[in-house]
Amino acid sequence: MSSARYKLLIVDDSKSILHKLREAFADTAYQVTTIDDPLKAYQMIENEQFHIVISDIVMPKMDGLTLLRKIKNYNGMIQVLMITADISINNTLNAFRYGAVDIFFKPIEDPAELIRAVDAIAAKLNRINTILHAVAK
User: Fold this and answer.
1) Which of 1, 40, 52, 71 keeps 20 to 30 A from 12, CA to CA?
2) Is 72 helix (H, G, I), strand (E, B) or coil?
3) Shortest CA distance to 81 belongs to which of 100, 58, 67?
4) What sign has the CA pseudo-torsion 73, 79, 84, 89?
């Protein structure tokens, strides 16, 4: 599966960050959806097939760590990358403990670094799919 087939959901309560990240991923092959409401984001995850999620940690209604846990309980194969301005050991450790692939701190000065991280996740998903196809034969 090429990266063009991977659906990416970006969740952040800041519309300016969503805009910046949508722009950053515009020239990539990912199908990008952005949303500023983590509760609606989780409903979308249940109703559509997203492969990769980028989520803020500190958000109203539901924090990103809770969203991360819900995503992983729903489908452990969905790859989640966290972003946060609230840089703490607790948030960082919990993000990895709950299954985040990576964490980036805001402000995101170089979106290319984030894109490279998503590309690495896509490569991992490609590898998993190759293994699953081999096993299924």
Assistant:
1) 1
2) helix
3) 100
4) positive
Alpha carbon distance 120, 124 (integer Å): 6
pLDDT digits (tens, 9 = 90+) for 5-46: 899 999 999 999 999 999 999 999 999 999 999 999 999 999
- What the block records as the tokens of 87 is 């840089």
Q: What pLDDT is stored for residue 42 in this prediction?
A: 98
- Quick one: which of 132, 102, 98 has its CA closest to 116? 102
**Two tokens at 48?**
């559509």
Side-chain-side CA neighbours of residue 89 (13 Å): 0
Would you report the helix, strand and coil content of the chain in percent, each value rounded to 5? 50, 20, 30
Task: Provide the token pair at 135.
Answer: 């096993």
